[in-house]
Amino acid sequence: MALTRLTTVDEIPENGSYLFTVRESHGTEQEVILVKQPDCIEAWKNFCQHETDQRLDRGMGAAMRDGEIICPKHGSMFNACSGDCDNGKAEGLSLVPVDISVNRGVVYLTDDDCEYLHDGGIDDGDDGMPGSSSHLQF
Ligand code: FES
Protein backbone atom coordinates (compact mmCIF):
# COMPACT_ATOMS: atom_id res chain seq x y z
CA MET A 1 0.00 0.00 0.00
CA ALA A 2 1.32 3.43 -0.96
CA LEU A 3 2.05 5.65 1.98
CA THR A 4 2.78 9.33 1.42
CA ARG A 5 3.65 11.75 4.16
CA LEU A 6 1.28 14.72 4.04
CA THR A 7 1.92 16.89 7.06
CA THR A 8 2.02 16.78 10.82
CA VAL A 9 -1.00 16.82 13.10
CA ASP A 10 0.23 20.10 14.60
CA GLU A 11 0.20 21.79 11.22
CA ILE A 12 -3.47 21.09 10.46
CA PRO A 13 -5.46 24.19 11.44
CA GLU A 14 -8.11 23.67 14.13
CA ASN A 15 -10.40 26.03 12.29
CA GLY A 16 -9.87 25.55 8.61
CA SER A 17 -8.30 22.82 6.55
CA TYR A 18 -5.11 21.61 4.97
CA LEU A 19 -5.61 21.43 1.21
CA PHE A 20 -3.77 19.13 -1.16
CA THR A 21 -4.22 17.63 -4.60
CA VAL A 22 -4.21 14.00 -5.66
CA ARG A 23 -4.60 12.05 -8.90
CA GLU A 24 -7.32 9.46 -8.73
CA SER A 25 -6.77 6.03 -10.27
CA HIS A 26 -8.81 6.94 -13.35
CA GLY A 27 -6.53 9.95 -13.95
CA THR A 28 -8.60 12.87 -12.65
CA GLU A 29 -6.98 15.47 -10.42
CA GLN A 30 -8.92 15.97 -7.23
CA GLU A 31 -8.57 18.30 -4.24
CA VAL A 32 -8.67 16.87 -0.74
CA ILE A 33 -9.05 18.63 2.60
CA LEU A 34 -7.60 17.43 5.86
CA VAL A 35 -9.44 18.56 8.99
CA LYS A 36 -8.69 18.19 12.67
CA GLN A 37 -11.09 18.08 15.59
CA PRO A 38 -10.45 17.09 19.22
CA ASP A 39 -11.68 13.56 18.48
CA CYS A 40 -10.71 12.97 14.87
CA ILE A 41 -8.47 13.71 11.92
CA GLU A 42 -10.18 13.07 8.60
CA ALA A 43 -9.70 13.72 4.89
CA TRP A 44 -12.56 14.54 2.53
CA LYS A 45 -12.73 15.27 -1.16
CA ASN A 46 -13.04 19.01 -1.53
CA PHE A 47 -16.55 19.37 -2.88
CA CYS A 48 -20.04 19.75 -1.54
CA GLN A 49 -22.58 16.98 -2.03
CA HIS A 50 -25.35 19.38 -3.02
CA GLU A 51 -23.49 20.80 -6.02
CA THR A 52 -20.36 18.82 -6.66
CA ASP A 53 -18.56 21.67 -8.44
CA GLN A 54 -18.72 23.68 -5.22
CA ARG A 55 -15.44 23.58 -3.32
CA LEU A 56 -15.52 23.61 0.47
CA ASP A 57 -11.99 25.02 0.77
CA ARG A 58 -11.49 27.68 -1.91
CA GLY A 59 -7.81 27.97 -1.11
CA MET A 60 -7.99 29.78 2.20
CA GLY A 61 -9.14 26.91 4.37
CA ALA A 62 -12.68 25.59 4.76
CA ALA A 63 -15.06 27.53 6.99
CA MET A 64 -15.59 25.57 10.20
CA ARG A 65 -17.80 26.04 13.24
CA ASP A 66 -18.49 23.76 16.19
CA GLY A 67 -16.92 20.77 14.49
CA GLU A 68 -18.80 21.29 11.22
CA ILE A 69 -17.47 22.16 7.77
CA ILE A 70 -19.67 24.87 6.26
CA CYS A 71 -20.37 24.87 2.53
CA PRO A 72 -19.66 28.40 1.28
CA LYS A 73 -22.48 28.36 -1.27
CA HIS A 74 -25.68 27.47 0.61
CA GLY A 75 -24.36 27.00 4.13
CA SER A 76 -25.05 23.32 4.68
CA MET A 77 -22.86 22.03 7.50
CA PHE A 78 -21.06 18.69 7.38
CA ASN A 79 -19.80 16.95 10.50
CA ALA A 80 -15.99 17.15 10.21
CA CYS A 81 -15.55 13.68 11.74
CA SER A 82 -18.34 11.70 10.03
CA GLY A 83 -18.77 13.78 6.86
CA ASP A 84 -22.53 13.65 7.34
CA CYS A 85 -24.91 16.55 6.74
CA ASP A 86 -28.32 16.88 8.42
CA ASN A 87 -29.25 20.38 7.38
CA GLY A 88 -29.97 22.65 4.45
CA LYS A 89 -29.63 21.80 0.78
CA ALA A 90 -27.19 18.94 1.36
CA GLU A 91 -29.31 17.27 4.07
CA GLY A 92 -28.92 13.51 4.11
CA LEU A 93 -25.72 13.56 2.05
CA SER A 94 -22.16 12.79 3.16
CA LEU A 95 -18.74 13.96 2.07
CA VAL A 96 -16.53 11.53 0.17
CA PRO A 97 -13.76 10.14 2.39
CA VAL A 98 -10.10 9.70 1.53
CA ASP A 99 -8.03 7.19 3.49
CA ILE A 100 -5.31 8.56 5.73
CA SER A 101 -3.46 7.30 8.76
CA VAL A 102 -1.75 9.03 11.65
CA ASN A 103 1.42 7.72 13.22
CA ARG A 104 3.44 9.57 15.86
CA GLY A 105 1.96 12.92 14.95
CA VAL A 106 2.51 12.53 11.21
CA VAL A 107 -0.36 12.22 8.74
CA TYR A 108 0.00 9.85 5.78
CA LEU A 109 -2.12 9.41 2.68
CA THR A 110 -2.95 5.68 2.46
CA ASP A 111 -5.74 5.70 -0.11
CA ASP A 112 -5.07 3.20 -2.89
CA ASP A 113 -7.22 5.27 -5.24
CA CYS A 114 -5.34 8.54 -4.70
CA GLU A 115 -1.76 9.43 -5.62
CA TYR A 116 -0.40 12.56 -3.92
CA LEU A 117 0.49 15.32 -6.40
CA HIS A 118 1.13 18.52 -4.45
CA ASP A 119 0.22 20.80 -1.62
CA GLY A 120 -2.62 23.27 -2.24
CA GLY A 121 -5.38 23.19 -4.83
CA ILE A 122 -5.32 21.90 -8.40
CA ASP A 123 -4.42 25.33 -9.80
CA ASP A 124 -1.53 25.67 -7.40
CA GLY A 125 0.30 22.94 -9.28
CA ASP A 126 0.46 24.79 -12.60
CA ASP A 127 3.41 27.05 -11.86
CA GLY A 128 5.40 24.49 -9.98
CA MET A 129 4.99 26.43 -6.77
CA PRO A 130 3.22 24.94 -3.79
CA GLY A 131 0.01 26.60 -2.73
CA SER A 132 -0.37 29.31 -0.09
CA SER A 133 2.23 28.15 2.36
CA SER A 134 3.98 24.84 2.06
CA HIS A 135 3.54 22.57 5.03
CA LEU A 136 5.74 19.87 3.61
CA GLN A 137 9.12 19.18 5.03
CA PHE A 138 11.52 16.83 3.35
S1 FES B 1 -23.56 23.74 -2.87
FE1 FES B 1 -23.17 23.18 -0.81
S2 FES B 1 -25.09 23.38 0.15
FE2 FES B 1 -25.47 23.94 -1.89
List keywords for this structure.
globular; five-stranded antiparallel beta sheet; 138 residues; Rieske Iron-sulfur Protein; mainly beta
Descriptive notes:
With 138 residues, the chain is an all-beta fold. It has one domain (4-124): Rieske Iron-sulfur Protein. It has strands spanning 4-8, 18-24, 29-37, 40-45, 63-65, 68-70, 77-79, 97-98, 100-103, 106-109, 114-119. It starts with a strand and ends in a 19-residue tail after the last strand. The model is unreliable at 130-134 (pLDDT under 50). The structure holds FE2/S2 (inorganic) cluster (FES). Residues 48, 50-51, 54, 71, 73-74, 76, 88-90 line the site of FE2/S2 (inorganic) cluster (FES).
Summed up:
The chain is mainly beta and 138 residues long. It contains no helices and 11 strands. The protein binds FE2/S2 (inorganic) cluster.
Query: What is the overall shape?
Result: globular
Helix content: under 10%
CATH superfamily, please?
Rieske [2Fe-2S] iron-sulphur domain
CATH architecture: 3-layer Sandwich
**What ions, cofactors and ligands are bound?**
FE2/S2 (inorganic) cluster
Please give the count of helices: 0
The profile of the biggest β sheet is: 5 strands, antiparallel
| Assembly type | single chain
Total domains: 1
